[in-house]
Amino acid sequence: MPVDQAGHPSADPLSRRHLVQAGAAGFLGLSMTDVAAWRAAAGDSGSSAKSVIFIYAIGGMSQLETFDLKPQAPAGIRGEFQPIATSSGMHICEHLPMLAKRSHLFSLVRSVSHEQNGHLQGCMLMQSGRSTLPPGFRGPAQRSDWPGITALAGSAAPQHHPFPSSVILPELTWHNRSNLVPGQTAGMMGYAYDPWVVQASPRCLGNGYNTRGLCPDCYEISYTKAHTHEAQPVFSAPRLELPSDVDENRLGARVSLLADINRQRQDLEESAAVADLDRYRQQVASLLTDSRTRQAFDIMQSDPAVLDRYGQNKFGWSLLMARQLVDVGVNIVQVNLGHNFTWDTHGSQFPVLKDRLLPPADRAISALLDDLHDSGRLDHVLVVLASEFGRTPKVFVVKGAKSPLPGRGHWGPVQTVMFAGGGVHGGRIIGATDNHGGYPVAGRATPEDFAATIYHSLGIPETAAWHERQGRPHYLYRGHPVSQLF
C-alpha cells in the first residue's frame, strides 16, 4: 500500500488494472489443508453461518416515494404516489404491493442522516459507515479512501468456509463511465482485502447513453424514447470451471508443484504481495474444485418458476445469485441495484419509479425474503436496502434537464433504510421525519450506526479492528447498532 512521507496511505486512484488485481486478490487466505479441514468440520450445509445481503440502490432512492410518504404535505412536496397499508400496520408506497404483504418480515429506519449531497461523497459515507470524508478525498475511488463496509465485514466476520468472504455483484458502479464510485473497495486496507467482484452484467450503451437501470428494461433518463439494449448477453454467470485440458487431479498436481517451488523461495514469502498472491491461488483452486460454488453462480440453470418469481431482469437475477451465495457460506454480498446512479430521479421521477424501477425491486426483494423465510434462513441472513442519500422534499423541474417532467434532488439529511432478518424484528418503524420528510425528528441514525448494525448482525465483536502494517489499529465499530431493531 503506497504511503506518503508521514507514513499515511497516499492517494492512489484505482485503475481498471488495479480492479482486476483487486478482484483476483480479494480472498482471505487458506491453504488446501485448511480447506479440507474446514469442510470436514463444517459439513455441507453451512446453515448456521451469519451472512448479509447488502442491496445498494445507487443514485439516491426517494424516501418520499417508497417508505416514508407524506400524503398530508403540500402539493409541491407530497408527490403523486399514495400510501397503502401493510401486513404489519405500517404504510408504504402503493407501487410496492408485494413488500406491503411482507412488512412483518422487515423494519424501517426512517431517520438515517448525514451531511453530504454529492453522489460520490454520499457513496463514500454510506458504503464505508463514516460520517466524514477521508483526508484528500477526490471523488473517484482511491487507495486512501476509508475501507468499505463490505470489505470490512468480509474480513472481520467469523469464517466458516473456504469461499470468498465478501462479494460484489453484478458489477461495480462507475461515475461518467471511467471513475470508480468510492466505497466499494477495501481502500486503505489494501487490495488484498477487496471484495471479490462478480462481473455478471455487461455495460449497456444503448441509444448513445450510459444505461441507468435494470436490463433488459433499461432506464434512460429522458424517458422520451425506447431504449435499445446493446450489450449482450444481458446477464451471465461467471465461468468458474477448469480449462478443458485440466482435470481436478492435474490441478492438484499443479498446486503441489507450485508449493514445492514456493518452499524453495521462503525468503520471498516474507513479502506481503507474494503472500497475498499465494492466498489467492489457493482460494481459486478451492473454488474451481467445489461444485456447490459453481452452482451458486450459475443461476440461469435455476427452475424457470424461480426465475419468474424473482423477475426476468438484472434486479431479480442479482438477488437470486446473492441468495445462492449466502447459502454456500459467503459472509456478505453487496448487490448494486443499478450502476450509473440508476435511482437519481431528477427528472421523470414518477413515471420512472412507477413503470421501471419500483416493480422489479418490489418483486425481487419480496422473492428473496420469501426464500429466506421459507427455508428458515432469514434468522441467519440480514437483508439491507440503502442508498447514498434520500431525495429533497421539494418536487421541481431541473433547468436544462433532458426531461421536462419533475423529480427531486439529492438529500443527505435523511433516507429510509430497510432491514430484514439477521435477528431483526419485523414490522417496526424506527425514527421519524418532519411533516415534509426532510429531516429526522426522532431516532437519528448515522452511517456509523448503520455499519455497526451490520457488524452486530454478523456477530463481529465490538473490539474488532484491522491493523496497518505499522501496527496501528483501526476499529470497525464507530457507532452503535440500532438497538430497536433487535
Structure description:
With 486 residues, this protein is an alpha/beta fold. It has a single domain (52-241, 292-485), classed as Alkaline Phosphatase, subunit A, CATH 3.40.720. The chain has 13 helices and 18 strands. It has an 8-stranded mixed β-sheet, with helices on both faces. The longest helix is centred in the last third of the chain and has 26 residues, at 349-374. The radius of gyration is 22 Å and the shape is globular. The two termini are 38 Å apart.
Compact description:
By secondary structure, the chain is of the alpha/beta class.
Number of strands: 18
CA-based gyration radius: 22 Å
Which fold name corresponds to the CATH topology? Alkaline Phosphatase, subunit A
Unreliable parts:
1-11, 16-48, 206-222, 240-244, 264-274
Termini separation comes to: 38 Å
Q: What CATH architecture would you give?
A: 3-Layer(aba) Sandwich
What is the CATH class?
Answer: Alpha Beta
Structural class based on helices, strands and sheet pairing: alpha/beta
Q: What coarse outline follows from CA principal-axis ratios?
A: globular
Largest sheet: 8 strands, mixed
**Main sheet: strand order:** 8-5-9-1-10-13-4-14
The average pLDDT value, as a whole number, equals 80
The portion of residues forming beta strands comes to 5-15%
Count of domain modules: 1
Percent helix among the residues?
25-40%
Number of helices: 13
